[in-house]
Amino acid sequence: MTPNIRPLVAGNWKMNGKRDALGVVKQVADASDRDSLSKIDALLCPPATLLYVATTLTEDSALNIGGQDCHTNKSGAHTGDISAEMIADCLGSHVIVGHSERRTDHGETDAMVKEKAHAVLASGLKAIVCIGETEEERKSGKTLDVLKTQLAGSVTDKATAENTVIAYEPVWAIGTGLVPSVEDVTEAHAFMRAELVARFGEAGQNMKILYGGSVKPNNAAELMSILNVDGALVGGASLKADDFIAICEATASVA
Ligand code: PGA
């Protein structure tokens, strides 16, 4: 954690979840109002097909609902895409941009991610900008160089502590059960903090930096205790209400 930063625990459902998963949204929404979770923000990013139903289900709770990606434009001839403005219209609060699966599956570059982040901010939403090294990059000692390049290339100049969240997700830790050591997470997050402060000054000091990649109920408290880790981006474990709530509770316990 970073002193004075309110942690965020965000769940990314990816291409999972049909209507029968709305029960999970409801369970997490109910839990989000617990006193024990008053020190953190919780967010679920279901697939776009469930977005509006999810925001309707959760409007009286503390749980936020967000999108997993958006187009750079507000509207137009882009079959199959959705815009940040549409997510805002569905009462979403955040949009994830630059997830490694988008970078790999759809060839998204840092420049495209930056443009998407820009579109998110222009729609009045908060951008969760994902960065992280591949296994090969880590093995060849390039992790910090990659983070530097991705931060510079993917985060817009309009970023503030209020409108932008960074999510550090080592690609090799996503969905694998592998997690970097406490020392490696500490080093990466301290490096990103220094880069953000150098570029944005005080805003960089206050910007949330999440860790993502195989966060589970049994490792969340340890990961969230690390300096400059201001919450989690959770994939697989966010599909189960009990696991996601347990990660929220573990985060709140060290906040
Ligand atoms: P995981 O996914 O928690 O299943 O590793 C994390 C992510 O891709 O955001």
Q: Indicate how many domains the architecture comprises.
A: 1
Q: What series of H and E elements makes up the topology?
A: EHEHEHEHHEHHEHHEHEH
Distance between the termini: 7 Å
**Ligand catalogue:** 2-phosphoglycolic acid
Q: Over all CA atoms, what is the radius of gyration?
A: 17 Å
Number of helices: 11
User: What is the name of the CATH class?
Assistant: Alpha Beta
Indicate the CATH topology: TIM Barrel
Q: What integer is the average pLDDT? A: 98
The biggest beta sheet reads: 8 strands, parallel, barrel
In CATH, the homologous superfamily goes by the name: Aldolase class I
Beta strand count = 8
Percent in strands = 5-15%
Describe the structure.
- The protein contains 11 helices and 8 strands.
- It is globular and about 45 Å long.
- The protein has an 8-stranded parallel barrel, surrounded by 6 helices.
- It has helices at 22-32, 51-58, 84-89, 100-105, 110-122, 135-139, 143-154, 182-200, 202-206, 220-224, 241-254, and strands at residues 8-12, 41-45, 64-67, 94-97, 126-131, 164-168, 208-212, 231-234.
- The termini are close together.
- Helix 1 (22-32) runs parallel beside helix 2 (51-58), helix 1 (22-32) packs parallel to helix 11 and helix 5 crosses helix 7.
- Helix 2 (51-58) links the parallel strand 2 and strand 3.
- The chain has a single domain, classed as TIM Barrel.
- The chain is an alpha/beta fold and 255 residues long.
- The structure holds 2-phosphoglycolic acid.
- 2-phosphoglycolic acid binds at residues 12, 169, 174-175, 212-215, 233-237.
